[in-house]
Amino acid sequence: MNKRPRLIVNNGNQSPWRQHLEKRRKPRRPWYLRRAWLQATLAVVAAIVIFSYYTGDFDNAPQTAVSFTNQMIGRQQLYVIDGDTIHYNGERIRIANIDTPEITQAKCDSELKRGLEAKAFLKELIDGRPLIINRGDPHTGRMTDQYGRTLALVSTGGRDVGTILVQRRLARPWTGRRMPWC
Hints:
By secondary structure, the chain is an alpha+beta fold. The chain has helices spanning 16-24, 36-55, 109-126, 161-167; strands at 68-72, 78-82, 85-88, 91-95, 98-99, 130-135, 150-156, 159-160, 172-173. The strands form two sheets. Strands 1, 2, 3, 4, 6, 7 and 8 form a seven-stranded mixed beta sheet that branches. The longest helix has 20 residues, at 36-55.
């Protein structure tokens, strides 16, 4: 043991050096605020959540489906992409109740030919006429499909466009999955 006596003072006075260190010490922030990358990640996640909520990507978010009733659609606003998809005012709309042959990914020449016929007939059918666009799939209630297109029922002149295409044998009723056309 050490023969030197130890001096123990516990009267609340600290050494000048200890007082200097205490003045310089800043209060500690919580662990989740100490890392800059964590702060940035939290900010990005918050922005994504807020953006998704207001754009309607969450299933429980309020859906703001708008129907255009008897609205005359101008030529510059409407473009027919294929037999079951139109591009209206910056929005891709997929006719919800039908399936038509593909044009861009046709499996055979017969499918391509039928797809081009369906596109031409759809363009002729809706060109320059008032359209009624009811957004949302009536069977599933979904607002968009897996490709981000708006699902909607489109009608003109009091008749459903999908039903007309099915009657002309240019489309078939949508069963929930694609069926081969070849």
